[in-house]
Design brief:
This protein is mostly helical. Helix content is 77%, strand content 0%. 24% of the residues are buried.
């Protein structure tokens, strides 16, 4: 049961990052009407910095989305198996640490944009 919940959480995280890829690809990162992300005014006013911000969000959210799909796909054989194999504490800790790494990768472009 917990493996299904973990896989669904990573799938939801991949979908949220997919939305970030869409927003960056469309060039809406600096548009306050499209989303609620805090963007500095100097980035919003400069076309070059806007292009960089859109590129950063697109690239890093795509990487984070793919990284979030890895555990979801890796847990599918365990979920679909007739044997009820439970996740051990070590596996849960490893998945939690991996989730933290994916979260840091997803948050990197927004930290970088604030320092542009």
């Amino acid at each position: 049961m917990e493996d299904t919940v973990v896989a669904l959480l990573f799938l939801m995280f991949a979908l949220v990052n997919g939305y970030g890829v869409y927003v960056g690809y469309r060039g809406w990162v600096t548009d306050p009407e499209k989303h609620g992300w805090p963007i500095p005014d100097k980035v919003r006013d400069s076309p070059e910095l806007t292009r960089v911000a859109n590129s950063l969000v697109t690239r890093w959210c795509a990487v984070s989305s793919v990284l979030a799909l890895i555990p979801a796909v890796a847990l599918m054989p365990r979920i679909l198996s007739e044997f009820q194999i439970e996740l051990s504490i070590k596996e849960l800790l490893a998945i939690a640490a991996y989730g933290m790494v994916v979260s840091v990768v997803a948050g990197y472009p927004f930290d970088r944009i604030s320092r542009l």
